[in-house]
């Protein structure tokens, strides 16, 4: 894949207050790229610098290898047309039908024939599954349907990039799922690059090829969802995940109730082909080590399948040591569980 967007040492301040701090990253043509972090981390501000809705205080923005940071007037307008945008609260016009909410966004300057425009709107409404609701008004639609109108509207001028600012935050889990599937479908079928802001780890796991984790204006991690959320030991990322992971709440109870020391608990991160290997029974056969599984769950992180397990090994010290060596050789990632947070 080739690089489509690039930020180089971007900083953004509001009234001398730094909100984005020296961030550099590249977004590839055709990928789904996530920007993740707590509320107030600077995600929306960063997103808006990509299409220069916000000009950075310092640093450079690249599009197709061209430095676009200082574009002005008609060149800036032309540049922005490469982007469509959707938002958490849909921003539809309540007095217009679904069809007209899309129609109003058509770039008139292109001078396209009405027939061509009509055909494209119909086609887009079909893509987002709303062809039968073209004459309805926003108040007659569910949240998920409204967001799909917003997607059709954002795509009407055939942008190269779709910027999504918390597109699922106002939706229930069912609608979230449908919307994520739709985003993935348009990413593939229209070869659209998608940049999506979210504070929900499940959203990134479902559709992102790569994610960036932003905390307090800084880029703390960048990589595949499993690299960023499972293999990264930065404490603010671990805490972020613990919102979603039951074991962060349950393991302290196990430790207190049964007098288990934190360091007896190992987190095993078993990925891809190892997921279907009989590792636990191998350990028992080879080293006479018994395994108590406290928690475990298999999940899909982007293109990786990961079994994230918390275990206690029972047996002599040499056996445990051999077990750890054996697992490490198989590229299982191992972390010893600390008292308060997971440590390498
Ligand atoms: N136009 C602005 N003027 C002044 N301060 C702003 C402006 N836009 C954002 N901020 C401040 O910058 C900080 C980061 O805001 P931003 O919206 O980028 O964060 P976020 O990570 O997207 O959070 P959220 O998910 O809550 O929107 C916040 O403290 C916010 O108040």
TrEMBL record:
Coiled coil: none annotated. SUPFAM superfamilies: ACT-like, P-loop containing nucleoside triphosphate hydrolases. The keyword Cytoplasm does not apply. Residues 5-241 form the ABC transporter domain. InterPro entries: AAA+_ATPase, ABC_transporter-like_ATP-bd, ABC_transporter-like_CS, ACT-like_dom_sf, MetN_ABC_transporter-like, NIL_domain, P-loop_NTPase. GO terms for molecular function: ATP binding; ATP hydrolysis activity. This is ABC transporter, ATP-binding protein. It comes from Liquorilactobacillus sucicola DSM 21376 = JCM 15457.
